[in-house]
Amino acid sequence: MGSTIVMINLFGAVALLLFGLAQVKDGVSRAFGARLRTGLASGTRSASRSFLSGFIATIALQSSTATALMIASFVERDLVLPRMAQIVLLGANVGTAVTAWIVATGIEWLSPLIILSGIVLYRRSSSTQQGAGTALIGIGLMLLSLQLLSIATAPMRESPALGAFIGLLDGALPVALIFSAVLAFVSSSSLAVVVLILSLASTGILSPALAIVLVLGANLGGAVPPVVATLSGPATARRVTLGNLIVRGIGCLIALPLAGYAGELLQSLPLSPAKLPVDAHLFFNIALALVAWPFSPLISRLMLRLVADDPKTEDGAKFLDQQALGTPVVALASATREVLGVGDLIERMLIRTENAFINNDLAPLREIAALEKRVDLIQQEIKIYLSKLGREGLDEETGRRSIVIIDYAINLEHIGDIIEKGLCEQVTKKITKGLTFSEDGYGELKSLFNMTIDNLRVAQTILVTRDFKLACQMMEVKVDVRRLEKQSSERHLERLRDGRMDSLQTSSLHLDMLRDLKRINAHIVSVAHPILDESGLLIESRLRDVP
To answer: Which residue spans within 250-357 are E strands per DSSP?
Structure first.
């Protein structure tokens, strides 16, 4: 009975730790998700910034898996170079290790205060404050779980069964590594497993060598979930996550025979024996980053050979099943999936145009025309497909949903035209004529580019979820874009009045790009109109009542 209670307490404490980690990730994503994504994407221009971006993102999200999936999606969209992505993940590994080290510093007593502060923030009206409050509550629960883990593992010192099991692992270190890796994979958190190892080590039942090997296993197992998550994804994403797994695997294979010597070395240093697992975790990831960093280009080239390119597909629609037309719900789901793919193509066009603008490089623009043709073709196929569905006699709700999808496809097609015939030509003119924007003007356009891409991602979410709050926020974004465009135009005119030569040379380009980005955002925001219209919150005129 006593052992059963101990196991229940242990599993409950681990479950609370995992729940706290999930709360931190969810809260930070809600409060700072867009900034984190933008920072991670823009912070990869150099190797050192890439490492720092991965480190900061993982510290914030408390999940190297989340960072790995995020950076893999950026590589897929040509937003981050593959070799820089490998360095980002090295920073993410160190970020996880630093988090474990901080957690082990004995600040568990702060958990009630942190949870209280989180609840106060969560009750605020701002979504950012609510997200920050959720993250604080998660941190407090993580610290509380440490206390519960300490209490749950204390009786294990006298457990003969556990002692025998630990003895078996101590005599078969490769098995211990695999066992720990499986735990990290199942829990999808190397941090949780390292904290569990820390709690067991504090009871004195783990030898230094076994503690280090279990930590190595946690590192190896933590790299597996991103690989599994990207198995069905494009080759570019699979290369990033597989490369990270191979780097960690090689590091573990090299460190495994040295675990005994490393344990003796750490014990000889003026470090707390109770904190040996987190110290070993930190040292291993720092050493791995230092060794693997120079080989990141080689790793990227190796991944190109190991993971073949995706087979080329037809440019047309892939998900419009003609046989599903007899089942409207299934047909609408197919059309929704297809139109989301069109949105991804538009995002790719925007990102390539922004990259050309930022880097003064025409290469990213070469694919724009082909992408725009695909957008035209697929949106036409979506319209024809749903028009056939309309002949089958739909109920009112299905009919409305069909119209929403068609409207969204048409708006995306208009955006593609604006990018190809407007932004693309303007960026080409800037590059070919060697024009340089003023520092202020460049920053304003770059900010509007980033805002436009983020807004498109939110619009994709609104189309699927039909979330009322997101729709309201999207309408507020339209006002923000209008205000930003107006302020940028006014500041540009002020620079012209001041006789700024760089502003004089790029005047028409600056104003044209502002206008086109504003038009694109207007098309994006339209996805929120049907939701607000159904709620009676949308009015036809923007004019105020006049007497």
So the answer is: none
